[in-house]
Amino acid sequence: MGTVNLTIDGVQVSVEEGSTILAAAEKAGIEIPNLCFMKEMKPYGACGVCVVEVEKCPKLLRACATKVAEGMVVNTKGERALKARKLALELLMGDHDGDCQGPCKLNCPAHTDCQKYVKEIAEGRFADATATVMETFPIPASIGRVCPHPCETACRRRLVEAPISIAQLKYFAADQARADGTLRAPKVAAPTGKKVGIIGGGPAGLTAAFKLAQWGHDVTVYDQMPEMGGMLRYGIPEYRLPKAILKAETDAIAALGVTFVNDFKIGRNAEFDKLRTWFDAVIVANGAWKSSAMRVKGEELKGVWGGIDFLRAVATGGKPEIGDRVAIVGGGNTAMDACRTAVRVGAKEVYVVYRRTRKEMPAEDIEITEAEEEGVKFKFLYAPDEILGKDGKVCGMRLQVMELGEPDERGRRKPVPVPGQFEEIALDSVIAAIGQRNDPEGFASLPQTQKGTIAADEATFATTLPGVFACGDTVNKGAGIAIGAIAQANEAALAVDAYLRGRTYQPVQPIISEREVTEKDFADRERIARVKMPQRPAEERRHDFKEVNLGLSVEAARAEAKRCLECGCHDYFDCKLIRYANMLRTDTKRLKGEFHPGFVERKLVCIERNQRKCITCNLCVRTCEERAKKGLLGLVGRGFKTVIKPEFDKPEAIAVCKDCHLCVDACPTGALRFLEK
To answer: What CA–CA distance (Å, rounded) separates 423 from 677?
Structure first.
């Protein structure tokens, strides 16, 4: 047999006569997307994804089924071919009803692989679960205790009875792995010779340091406080996050070779512009350490505290003189931390003043409930009008009665004053926990937003100063939750790494498939109660700062993890369909319409077939027929409603599937899954 010479994307290729364009391209190292082709079988040409342009040919040709010809000139990336290929993918994705990733992972700001580590916990692999979390950030035991877990808000198990306790499982696994001595340190690459300075030792700074150290860079973290941890150490009370836990996790970061420098403040120990000269790149992650003002009369009186200032004073070993009667203004988790801390430092009457109702409070419901159990009184639909004083010290507060009006831009009903209605309460101190902001002192050379935060690129977190990046609560929109700061730190670390290696970092949002589900989709699921975290009784815990939660047992944690519905696709990282969708930036929802009949069956006993994910490429049917020589699968129905089902006369005919599963290996979408039996 002779050879044929052709050109593909400008590359000269010689192949055997009778070869296809697809085979010739593969020989030249050129990938042509395809979904229904396997070289072990005859060409099928069903998916339409492998179309190419051929010079002097008016129509597009399917590369998997078109034989090469002498002198043929092929363009795999021509405008017509790419447009047709993208349309074919959009048609396929429009009928592909599957979840690439679990909603828990998608709703986590840092995209931690919740589904994976929950499954590892269910299997009793606690060190593996902790390692999975630490692929994203280095402090799982700490974050698990304090995160408001947006992952759980999205958990599909809520459509059955209640979400998985994802955050509690996270810190259970980390605690267990540390106690067992199975916690694994991540690998560190060979030194790059590049030096990075990080200002701020909170969640963002620690995460960036952790990542950059693993990639071989020499990292030094500076922090103004005596110990690392940032707001986790000085803003989160001990009863929620024991500092020994945090210390163990920060020590592990130092063990990677990261240098910690504490009691170091920009402007006092070194000017920012001077510090920049010490490093090849700098990340500013100094947090938001200033409490927002209430802007009411009397705020200057002795006995008025900022929420962060009060919590920091307690965390550093002080016992602030707040008297017997204290009011905390605010409705977030900082307000809950402040009111419960006030109880523990001896206040006899503690109020939380909030201008909306409990329903609108941004604080976690469990925090509100635990505060109530500890004796905190809530005054809903009140706002501070004036802080009253006597001899320069707080003696009370006049409250404006509020009512809920129209919804604001976030959908919450806006509180409006009720004209002429006020109430006064006697107080010894007032703690304002209505927000926090960054301290720009020492960073005058950095660009700022109108809010007074550091201005940084939303995607790369680069500032306008060469080699200077900023992330976390100090940038752009300002203070948020810790896992949000961690998400920014991960992106900033990637951008810094690219910068140090002379590359440009520009993150691309991945294309994914997401299912739309309702309670009906899970009507057949067994209802299993969410595991309840054991706690110390309120009357005991309100008198000290020992941890409130007692922790899950191994049995309880594994049982809770087994409630996971495993929404994300098991084959996501090997799925050709989604890889090509990303390659061509396919709009997965543009052509969504009526779906094929959707069902999940296990008639093949050891193979699960998910028809929702099937794109009817027919690879499984042809593989079973041509390669396995069994013919157990076939197309059923006609037209759009065609589905693939097993076809066999005797149950014993499928016994061969246990040792074969060639169809599973051939499936390009994860519609088939081999079950461990």
So the answer is: 68
